[in-house]
Specification:
The structure is a single chain. It is built from 10 helices and 17 strands. It is of the alpha+beta class. The protein has 2 domains: 187 residues, no CATH class; 144 residues, no CATH class. The strands form 6 sheets. A 6-stranded antiparallel β-sheet has the order 6-7-3-5-4-11. A 3-stranded antiparallel β-sheet has the order 1-2-8, with helices on one face. A two-stranded antiparallel sheet has the order 9-10. Strand 6 and strand 7 form a beta hairpin. Helix 6 runs antiparallel to helix 7 and helix 6 packs parallel to helix 8.
C-alpha cells in the first residue's frame, strides 16, 4: 500500500522531521534528493551537494536523523529540466525574467509547466526530458537552466522564513508525469539569447577555446562583442578566482580594447554571469593558501606543475561556452586536453613530471 504523504495526513506531517517531510514524497515520485542547510539554498558543510543526491529511503532517513531541520534539494538532470526565472536582481530590484522567458517561447510549442513559486516571487518551471547543459543567464538575462550538474530547492523548504510552494497542487507530480520537453523547448533552453549555439554539423564535440592572448590581440569591431567578452571573462574568472577586484580590473582593461564598447548593462551582465558560474562550479573548493606555493623565489614543485599545465594544455569548452568539468574529491575540476586534442592528461603529466624530477 502506498504511504501517506504529509499533505494527506491529518496533522500535515507535523510529527515528522522537516527534512523527512520534504524529502520522502519526492523520493516516492522519482526525484533525486539531498540535504541543504537549514533556511538556505546551499549544501550542508562537508557534503557534495547534488552529487550526493539519491532516491534511497534509507539514506534519506539517515540524513533526517542527523539534520532534521535541513532544507531539501532536488538534483536536476536525471530526466528533469528546470527553468529558473528570477524577478529580482541581486540587489532586490525588479528584473524582467518573466518577460524575457515569455519572449523566448512566444509562438513556439512549449507546453505549460509544473510550477514552483519561490520565496522571492520567481518561478521554477519543471519539465521531463533528456539532460541539457546547466547555465546561468545564457538563454536570457534572469533566466537560468537547471539540468545536468545542477539543483533546485525543493517545495516545502524555507528561505528567509518563506516556503517554496507548488502552484495549484499540494505536491509535485512524479517525474514521469511532468510535461515533456518538446523540440521547441529544447531549442530554447540550449540557445544563447534565443539564437542557436554554434556547433559543428553532425557532432556534439566541444569547440576549442581560443587562448586569452589571441582574444585580446583580435577584439571584434562590432558583431560578436558579447561572445568575445564572455570568452575573455572565462579566462579571467579562472585566473582571478576569489579575487573579485582583480577580475573586475582585468575585465575593464579588456573592454577598453573594443572600438565600439558594449552597453553597460550588457557588459556587466556578462561579466557577472561568468564570475558567478565559475564560483558555482568551484563552490566546494577552498581558496588555495599562498603558503601552498612554497617559500622564497624558487617556485615549489606544486607551482611548477601548475605552470606546466598552463603552458602545455588548453582548456576546452562545451558548445555553449561552459567549461567541461569532472567531479573529483567533491570539486568540479576542468577537463584539460593537449593542444593536439588528445586526452590522457594523467599519463602525460606523470611522464612530464618524471622528466622534471617531480616524482611519479
Amino acid at each position: 500500500m502506498p504511504r501517506l504523504h504529509p499533505h494527506q495526513m491529518p496533522d500535515g506531517g507535523a510529527a515528522m522531521p522537516p527534512f523527512l517531510r520534504r524529502a520522502l514524497p519526492l523520493v516516492d515520485a522519482g526525484y533525486n534528493v539531498f540535504p541543504l542547510r537549514k533556511g538556505a539554498k546551499v549544501p550542508l558543510p562537508g557534503t557534495q551537494g547534488f552529487k550526493d543526491a539519491t532516491t534511497d529511503e534509507k539514506q534519506i532517513r539517515a540524513w533526517a536523523a542527523r539534520h532534521p531541520d535541513a532544507n531539501a534539494g532536488i538534483a536536476t538532470g536525471h530526466g528533469l529540466i528546470v527553468v529558473d526565472i528570477d524577478v529580482h536582481d541581486r540587489d532586490g530590484n525588479p528584473a524582467p525574467g518573466e518577460e524575457n522567458w515569455a519572449n523566448l517561447i512566444s509562438g513556439l510549442d512549449v507546453p505549460p509547466a509544473v510550477v514552483v513559486r519561490t520565496p522571492s516571487g520567481g518561478r521554477h518551471l519543471l519539465y521531463r526530458g533528456a539532460s541539457v547543459q546547466t547555465n546561468a543567464g545564457i538563454v536570457a538575462p534572469h533566466v537560468d537552466i537547471r539540468s545536468s550538474g545542477g539543483h533546485v530547492v525543493a517545495p516545502g523548504s524555507l528561505v528567509d522564513g518563506k516556503a517554496y510552494k507548488v502552484v495549484g497542487a499540494d505536491a509535485l507530480p512524479a517525474v514521469l508525469d511532468l510535461p515533456e520537453a518538446t523540440p521547441d523547448f529544447v531549442s530554447v533552453v540550449t540557445s544563447r539569447g534565443g539564437q542557436k549555439r554554434a556547433t559543428a554539423q553532425g557532432t556534439t564535440a566541444p569547440r576549442r577555446n581560443t587562448s586569452l592572448a589571441d582574444l585580446l590581440a583580435d577584439p571584434p569591431t562590432e558583431g560578436g562583442r558579447n561572445d568575445w567578452l564572455a570568452r575573455v571573462a572565462g579566462h579571467h574568472a579562472r585566473a582571478f578566482r576569489y579575487n573579485r577586484t582583480g577580475y573586475d580590473a582585468a575585465i575593464a582593461e579588456a573592454i577598453d580594447l573594443l572600438d565600439s564598447p558594449l552597453p553597460a548593462w550588457e557588459r556587466d551582465r556578462t561579466a557577472e554571469s561568468i564570475w558567478a558560474g565559475d564560483l558555482q562550479r568551484h563552490q566546494y573548493e577552498e581558496p588555495v593558501s599562498p603558503s601552498k606555493f612554497g617559500k622564497g623565489d624558487k617556485p615549489s614543485a606544486y607551482r611548477q606543475r601548475l605552470d606546466f599545465l598552463e603552458a602545455t594544455y588548453d582548456l576546452y569548452r562545451s558548445q555553449d561556452e561552459e567549461p567541461l568539468t569532472n567531479p573529483k574529491h567533491g570539486v568540479l575540476r576542468p577537463i584539460m586536453l593537449s593542444k593536439k586534442g588528445e586526452g590522457g592528461l594523467r599519463a602525460t603529466l606523470n611522464a612530464a613530471a618524471g622528466r622534471r624530477g617531480w616524482g611519479g
